[in-house]
Amino acid sequence: MIDSMELLRSNLSRVRIPEPTNRIYKHECCITFETPRSEGGLFIDMNTFLAFGKDCVGWNYEKAGNPVYLHIKQTRKLVPEDRPSKKPTLLALGVDGGFDNNEPEYEESHDIVILPDYVTLPFPSVELPEKVRLAVDAILRAEGAERKEQLAAWTADKKQISAYAMNLQQVDHGVTVPPSGWKCTKCEKRDNLWLNLTDGMILCGRKNWDGSGGNDHAIEHYKESGYPLAVKLGTITADLEAADVFSYPEDESVMDPLLAQHLAFFGIDFSSLQKTEMTTAERELDQNTNFDWNRIQESGLEVEPLFGPEYTGLVNLGNSCYLAATMQVMFATRSFYTRFYMNQSLKMAFQMAPADPTVDLNMQLTKLAHGMLSGKYSVPKIENDDSASIATSINRQEGIPPRMFKAVIAASHPEFSSMRQQDASEFFLHFLDQVEHANSGKPELDPSRSFKFGIEERILCSSGKVTYNKRLDYILSLNIPLHEATNTEELEAFNNLKAEKISEGIDLSSDQIVRPRVPLEACLANFSAPEEIHDFYSTALKAKTTAIKTAGLTSFPDYLVLHMRKFVMEAGWVPKKLDVYIDVPDIIDISQMRSKGLQPGEELLPEDFPGVEVESNKPVANEEIVTQLVSMGFNHLHCEKAAINTSNAGVEEAMNWLLSHMDDPDIDFPITQDTQGAAALLNVDQSKVDILISFGFQEEIAQKALKASGGDIEKATDWIFNNPDASVSPDMYATTSSTTPASIHDGLPDGGGRYRLFGFVSHIGTSTQCGHYVAHILKNGRWVIFNDAKVGASINPPKDMGYLYFFERVSS
Question: Under which main EC class is this enzyme filed (predicted)?
């Protein structure tokens, strides 16, 4: 039998020493939610640096053929009964020096394991080949890719290059900075130290409100000297981009492309330094992800915790409640449950995945589905009983962290990639778009189709002729007609009381507030109600007129999602939430909302434009705008197009449009009504249109505003408020052509119009930019609340406070 050490040496070619830029996974399995604390520990592939749980590492060996793994196992320490409480030195939770949040401590052990026979060699050991020892040391020292991605998201906006970096003047005072043993020049602080990159002074950071942190010596030195840039000692490694460089005049963390040169000026060899301090982003992340989000939902009710299959909570990654609430409802549907859980095993998804399964949406959706639905991770949490020095279970679960899924689904979206709060309706649409794209060409495997339906708009011209336009959607956005409130008498009494209290300088208590109650039926009826369109260009009359628009659904999906437009625009373009209750019945019938299409006796508006009319309506560019742009060196035709496509809104808007359309294939085509009308509308980013629709604006208005503002949402909102008479774009001519080919509508799910409410997502907070999302789902005849990692039997589900309502069709 071959000796274990010889076996390792024979496989050294499959061992790599990681570079600083390599992504190293060592905190969570790529296929499951196993961690080093799981029973089998975690196995790190020493060639790809991917991590696998005990049940999955064999699959990776079969697929990739890599035999050598670093096995990491963490075992809980028993807490001594007389352990003293630690005095916090940092304003943080769950970090060294932070507040003691009673998190258990763990011992970590390491081994080298060689597959397929799981031959094990202990680490550390001087007998191991040097290449293996160097590789393991580098893996253990490195920041895990899981945490790196989380930190990158928390930083949110990519750090900008400092305006002071490229021309930084350094002063030679003969300072040589040692590789360790640093201390503040003005006090005894030995942590949170910053090296000023101009004169080499080492000084402590800012003082926190509670007296912890530094003594403000670094920032005081900047105020005295004006030397702008400093780097945090302990964050400098071979990966220089990860170093924490702060610009005092710019008041933010920045990039210094010449950092290596600036460090060398003081004798610092960055390649030999190791990370010993948290960056500013890391410290902020630690403080925020440990915040107890559950307090936001504390209502004084004793909610019975639930465990087992389909009752797994999702850990809040920091403002990720919008994702957690949405995904809980998604996997409560038959289509997603079947596609990613019942019909697809973890091994099957891994075998189909690319070399890196962490970037594959199908793999990460399957991982999330099995994690949430299997019940494997929905068990009571284990905690230490300090008095008995034993581990005991408590009546709540830890939940699973959807980090890898979030990284994949948000990769193509800058907002969802950040750690900022997001709109759950926007995430829902983005998620289904990504799922549809991943299943392109395989409609039978696409679960997003169960949400898709057609909308048909009928426009009746004053000539008596009609046109029909069709589009597809996943969500039915409904305006809330406050005038349809059913409690008008109570509202009138409340408004009188409010006015009285205000005159007396007295605030109303929360139990005195009366909110409008609007029936969901009124919101649905409002969607289909006739709506006037002013300045509609009729191809029959060859003139602008007033038309009547009605809307209906061409198909009824398996799952109907209703989005309540509760947000309106306040001063400063900040979305504000309508304080309103929606009375939602358990069963709704939308049969009357089915569109009928072209009816016998109806005559369609003519398609063709007589040449003279088109020419007379040819758009004209504002000559002042064109002249200013041409004086900047732009092509005259391009400038005319920019002015026309922004409705002559101004030079800045035209320039923004011009810069973003320089590479358009038709940029040099002659200006025609056709290309500047329909084509211009098609160039509008639909996701931005959806955002404006969520604010309560009509789709046509949103399109025109975005076109006029070069795609800038804030400027588009400004444009709408400055053009109160704006309606359907004059160049949006009435034709019989539909915006979506009829063939695309073929094959959509369809059936009866009766639906049963099975879930809703509620929002707590004043706007989409803040607050918290919670999901309620009907499971096995009872309502269940999913509040991030907290899962329990709902006592009083707030059905009238929903933001998104999810209905499933009732079988006839």
Answer: hydrolase
Q: Is 262 annotated as catalytic?
A: no
- Does some domain include residue 500? yes
Number of domains forming the structure of the chain: 6
- Residue 509 in any domain: the answer is yes
Consult the annotation and say whether 639 binds a ligand.
no
Average pLDDT score over residue span 693-702: 71
pTM reported for the whole predicted model: 0.68
Same domain flag for 248 and 265 = yes
How far apart are the C-alpha atoms of 64 and 62, rounded to whole Å?
6
Shared-domain flag, residues 111 and 206? no
pLDDT in tens, 757-793: 999 999 887 666 667 899 999 999 999 999 999 999 9
Which position among 56, 321, 523, 639 bears the catalytic label?
321
Q: Are 785 and 532 in contact (CB under 8 A)?
A: no
- State how far the Cα of 165 lies from the Cα of 425, in Å rounded to an integer: 41
* Residue 84 falls inside a structural domain: no
770 is in an annotated binding site: no
Look up the CATH number of the domain holding residue 513. Answer: 3.90.70.10
**List 262, 745, 772, 776, catalytic entry:** 772
* Structural domain span for residue 776: 292-381+397-424+751-809
Was 204 annotated as part of a binding site?
A: yes
Written as one string, the DSSP assignment of 215-272 is: -SHHHHHHHHH---EEEETT--SS-GGGS-EEETTTTEEEB-TTHHHHHHTTT--GGG
352 with 455, same domain: the answer is no
191 and 182 Cβ atoms separated by less than 8 Å: no
